[in-house]
Amino acid sequence: MIAIRPAEPADLSAIAALDARLTGQAKAVYWQDMLARYAGGPPERHFLVAETSRGVLVGFIAGEVRVWEFGQPPAGWVFAIQVDPRQRLKGAGSALFDALAARFKAQGVTHVRTLIDRKDHVILSFFRAQGMTAGPSLQLDKAL
Amino acid sequence: MKLQTATRLGLYAILELARDPNRTLSAAELGERFGVSTHSLAKVLGTLSAAGFVQGGRGASGGYRFTGNRRRITLMDIVALFEPAPGRRAKEPGEDTEIGSALQRVLTEIDEIAEATLRSISLETMLRGTN
Hints:
The complex is a heterodimer of chains A (144) and B (131). Chain A is 33% helix and 24% strand. Chain A is built from 4 helices and 5 strands. In chain A, strand 2 (45-52) and strand 3 (57-66) form a beta hairpin. In chain A, helix 1 (12-23) crosses helix 2. The longest helix of chain A is centred in the C-terminal third of the chain and has 15 residues, at 92-106. The N and C termini of chain A lie far apart (48 Å). Chain B is mainly α. Helix content of chain B is 56%, strand content 7%. Chain B contains 6 helices and 3 strands. Chain B has helices spanning 5-19, 27-34, 38-50, 75-82, 98-120, 123-128; strands at residues 25-26, 54-56, 63-66. The longest helix of chain B has 23 residues, at 98-120. Chain B is elongated. Chain B starts with a helix and ends with a helix. The model of chain B has no long low-confidence stretch (mean pLDDT 90). The A-B interface holds A 89, 118-119, 121, 124-125, 127-129, 131, 134 and B 71, 74, 112-113, 116-117, 119-122, 124-125, 128-129.
C-alpha cells in the first residue's frame, strides 16, 4: 500500500539518493534547495512523496501553479517525478500524479502541464497513461 | 500525418483484438467491423502474427487473438511493421540540394515528433480512451 504525503526536510537524503540512483548524478544541494523552496513553501508550490506502509520512500513529485507563463492562463506544472524502478507499474507514480493534480485543481486551475525529452519514452508513456496529450505550446530551441 | 492503408488496418486490428485477449476474431469479422476488405486484413494479420502480437488464423475463417502485452506494446511497434523506418527510406530527387536538405530537416523534425508521440502511447493507454 502506497501513501502520499507532503515532503519534509527530513526526506532530503532519501530523495537525493533515489534521484542519484536513477540519473547517475548526485545533486544533494539542488534537492536541498528544492525542498527548502517547495516543501512547506508558498501554497502554489507542492512537493509530495510516496512511501510504503513501512515508511520507505519510493517516489516523489514536485510542481507548482504558474500564472500566465508563456502567455497561457494559470496551469499546474509538473517539473520533477521519480519512482523507484522496483515500484514501477504498481501505482506509485499514478498516485503521486493524482495527488498533485488534485491539489492543482483545488487551487482553481484546469490544466496540468509538463515538459519531456521526446526521446525519453518511459516518462512520455507514463504521462500519456495519465491522460496527458500534446499541449497548446511547442518548445523551440537554438544552439548558441 | 498520413499512414499507409496497411498501417491503419494493423492498428485497427491490434486494438480491436487487444480489447479482449480471450476473444478470437476472423479477418472477415474485423473487416466487417471497420468496413474494409477481408483480403487486406488477412495480409495485415499475417504480419501481426509473424511479429508475435496475435496468434491463430488457420483457414479462411480462422480466428485471431491478441497475445501481446497491452502495457508494453506501443502504437509505434505496430506502425514500424508497416512503414519504412525514417532513416531507411529511399532518397527523394533533389534532397541533396540546399533547398532539398533544408526541407528534409523540417520533415525529419516532424517525423521525430510523430515517432515520439506514437512510441509514448501503449495499447493500454489507447484503449482507455475508447471505452
